[in-house]
Specification:
alpha/beta, FAD/NAD(P)-binding domain
Length: 472
């Protein structure tokens, strides 16, 4: 530990965001960066606390104290090498991870944890800029062939790990370009797509083959893949969106959040004409139903499209600000109020509202009827939703349903293979990630349900270990 007293003498310093008056007119990343000297000082705040709760809280088991110390000492190369020991893609998690490590940092007790997430992004950018991160193809091949179905974070992590073991890996992606929801679900202002392309170039150089615009189960039968490969890894994500069915759900202008977000990204990438039939927020009163990160992304995208107003509603209570006694430190996922960069750009947020009906004119949505509710505990201690009878009508020309996902899409490949599902509709697997079908494995959201990118990467790494063990 180079500076054991830095946490007492150096305050936490975040890079912050670009000015709202500038960033709402473009899709460039909103987060700024600190210079290297400031970043080294922030890394020095890692206090050698003895019990690294940050390491415990990280789904990947990143060794925070070790690589923080390397950054402080200016050894960026060693720092990124230690990061890569546990995390295939720190440039992704350094931008979009909710940082459970910081929530569990000992300094979080004083509301000033080490800037671990920003440090992670910084060390990776320095390493890329100075050529420290290079392709590492395997020295020899095993002759075994593995098909990865889906190219999101879990699929990419599994592919890189299996390729490094010498297996021939082919990644099949139904969309135009690899990346899954990293590319088509996360707005460019949070994750610039050249960051994904930069990593994909390395993966291809390492020998991984990517087959795009190919949906297994439709363009290629599942039985053909089963015959041609020694193992198949399902990394198809949890693509079935959660829906609601109030009166008027059939009106035009009500869309799933991911349809809205992915269309904007496709247009920015030149994959879809800007003149195509668009889900546009321009000059509209937008209502986002759902208070999570996807809802926040809808807010930011709507503002950039020129929405007249944006309101985001949530059925759950408003979380407390700062600390929550029900989820105390070192809980990596404290239930506290989160204000994103998109919320800061102009959005009304409301809680404890249940959607009752959609109303429209000429087949187009114009209003949404909502009701105030409360949550009471029943005799078993479980919270149940209680109607208050207080209703309100909100103006809305565009309604975006950001209610999460329920499970992977069953129609097509999964049903063709005869996959068994668990009680939530996810692919059922054993402790070795094996499905009910011989030589078919599953990883990421397909088996866990919708979750964090960092958990998906961890799942992909573990699945790769199990597949390798089975193949050899």
């Amino acid at each position: 530990m180079g500076n054991p007293k830095a946490f007492m003498t150096i305050p936490r310093k975040e890079a912050g965001y670009r000015l709202v008056s500038e960033r709402i007119y473009d899709h460039a990343e909103v987060e700024q960066t600190l210079n290297r000297e400031d970043r080294k000082q922030q890394a020095s705040r890692c206090m050698d606390c003895g019990i690294p709760f940050c390491h415990w809280a990280c789904p990947l088991g990143n060794k925070m104290p070790e690589w923080q110390d390397y950054i402080y000492k200016g050894d960026w190369k060693k720092g990124v090498e230690v990061l890569h020991e546990t995390n295939n893609f720190p440039e992704f998690t350094g931008r979009i991870c909710p940082a459970p490590c910081e929530k569990s940092c000992v300094l979080a007790l004083h509301d000033s944890p080490v800037t671990i997430r920003e440090n992670e992004a910084a060390v990776t950018e320095v390493a890329f800029m100075e050529g420290m991160i290079k392709a590492r193809p395997p020295r020899q091949r095993t002759g075994k062939k593995v098909a990865i179905i889906g190219s999101g974070p879990a699929g990419l992590a599994a592919a890189q790990q299996l390729n490094s073991k010498g297996h021939h890996v082919t990644v099949f992606e139904k969309d135009n370009r690899p990346g899954g929801l990293l590319r088509y679900g996360i707005p460019n202002f949070k994750l610039s797509k050249h960051i994904i392309d930069r990593r994909l170039s390395l993966l291809m150089e390492e020998g991984i083959e990517f087959v795009n615009n190919t949906e297994i189960g439709r363009d290629i039968p599942g039985r053909q893949i089963m015959a041609e490969y020694d193992a198949i890894c399902l990394a198809v994500g949890a693509g079935k969106p959660r829906d609601i069915t109030p009166e008027g759900r059939e009106l035009k202008g009500i869309h799933f959040a991911m349809d809205f977000l992915s269309q904007e990204i496709r247009i920015l990438q030149g994959e879809e004409s800007a003149d195509a039939e668009r889900i546009s927020a321009k000059d509209k009163q937008v209502l986002v139903i759902g208070g999570g990160d996807t809802g926040s992304d809808c807010v930011g995208t709507s503002i950039r499209q020129g929405a007249k107003s944006v309101t985001q509603i949530e059925i759950m209570p408003k979380p407390p600000v700062g600390k929550n006694p029900s989820t105390p430190w070192p809980n990596p996922f404290p239930q506290v109020l989160k204000t994103s960069s998109s919320h800061e750009e102009g959005c009304e947020r409301r809680w404890l509202l249940n959607t009752l009906a959609f109303r429209g004119e000429n087949g187009e949505v114009k209003e949404v009827v909502v009701e105030e509710i409360r949550w009471d505990k029943d005799e078993n201690g479980r919270f149940t939703m209680v109607s208050t009878g207080n209703t309100e009508t909100l103006k809305a020309d565009l309604v975006l349903l950001a209610l999460g996902f329920v499970h992977p899409v069953h129609e097509g490949l999964l049903n063709e293979l005869g996959i068994t599902y668990d009680v939530r509709g996810n692919v059922a697997v054993d402790k070795q990630h094996s499905s009910s079908v011989d030589k078919v494995f599953a990883t990421g959201d397909a088996m866990m349900g919708a979750t964090l990118v960092v958990k998906a990467i961890a799942s992909g790494r573990k699945a790769a270990e199990d597949i390798h063990r089975k193949l050899m």
